Amino acid sequence: MWLMLVATVRAFRNEGYDFADIALYVGGGVLALLVLSFVVDMFREKAKEAEQPAETPAAFDPMAGGFPVPPLPGQELPPVPRRRSRRERELIVSGGPDTQSDESLGGTTDGKEASDG
Predict the structure, then answer these.
(1) What is the secondary structure of 81-96 as a DSSP string?
(2) Residue 89 and residue 52: Cα distance in Å, rounded?
(3) CB of 71 within 8 A of CB of 65?
(4) Is-contact 77 60, C-beta < 8 A?
(5) Which residues does 69 contact at the CB level (< 8 Å), separation at least 6?
(6) C-alpha span between 22 and 1 (Å, rounded)
(7) What is the pTM for the complete model shown?
(8) How far apart are CA 21 and CA 29, in angstroms?
(9) Interacting residues of 72 by C-beta distance below 8 A, sequence separation 6+
(10) How is the chain split into domains, by residue range?
């Protein structure tokens, strides 16, 4: 860009233009570029603002910052997960039909643990 500016000024001087005329032409060109870039930047910003939809607020997480906080007005707490009642839970019995005894695995039933040695 700088090289083109210097070449243009030299070409004007070789054609016999006065320094004031050259300064006016160069200043006008620079001013036109600045105004053009300003207008383009304004339209880009407007297009970005129009392009972005309104963001929906994220779900409220009371432990987001590491400490429990109350919800702001308009926010709702998520439902609290609860355990099933005892009647609904399955009763697990030791020695049920799905378990294998130590005898079927080759173990002893004398109540002592087998040694490794």
Answers:
(1) P-PPPTTTSPPP-TT-
(2) 49
(3) no
(4) yes
(5) 62
(6) 17
(7) 0.35
(8) 12
(9) 60
(10) 2-51
Tokens representing 106? 């080759």
φ, ψ dihedrals at 21, nearest 5°:
-65, -45
What are the tens digits of pLDDT across the range 52-83?
Answer: 766 676 776 766 777 777 777 887 877 777 77
Q: How far is CA 104 from CA 100, 101, 109, in A?
A: 7, 6, 11
Side chain identity, residue 44:
R
* Lookup result for tokens 């001013």: 31
- What is the SS3 assignment for 26-51? HHHHHHHHHHHHHHHHHHHHHHHHHH
The type of residue at 37 is S
List CB contacts of 22: < 8 A, sequence separation 6 or more: 9, 12, 13
71 within 8 A of 62, measured Cβ to Cβ: yes
**What's the pLDDT band for 114 if we cut at 50, 70, 90?**
low
